[in-house]
Amino acid sequence: MRNARSPLSALAALLLTAAALSTAAPSAGAANNLDIRIDRIDVIAHIPHDLADGLFHTELGASETLTGTVLDAGVDVGEGIAHETGNGGTESLNIPLTLDLGVVNSGDHPVVVATDTQLDATAETVTRTFTFTCHLNALGTGTCS
Predict the structure, then answer these.
(1) Spatial distance between the Cα atoms of 17 and 14, rounded to a whole number of angstroms
(2) For the purposes of burial, counting CB atoms within 10 Å of the CB of 143, is it exposed (0-12), middle (13-18) or buried (19 or more)?
(3) Residues 6+ apart with CB under 8 A from 71
(4) What pLDDT, in 10s, does the model give residues 105-115?
């Protein structure tokens, strides 16, 4: 019997592979060293709720599109997108996870794949991966950091 792979796990593997290939420093053509950092996942009742995000070296007035995907044991459990206008420096914002696909539990080690695409005179994209440990109370509420 062949090892059947669900389309979702194939997508998760593809996302992790793409993120792993792009976790190096921004490309040589990157004009302003755009970078992204995820500090934590906020969780309510075992559902990933949002990603606390830091965005670095933004271009003043540029259109920023941030996406985040939360994978727990290779399974997509949450996705979100946020839009922001660059302030010309460092920004902090949250990416709301509006697509709830699964749950996390205390002690889980979810992986976040986060991407920022900045559009000004040119397009610049950076993707990073982050691994967290979840610390949830009995109601399944807390953070993964």
Answers:
(1) 5
(2) middle
(3) 12, 15, 16, 77, 110, 111, 112, 113
(4) 999 999 999 99
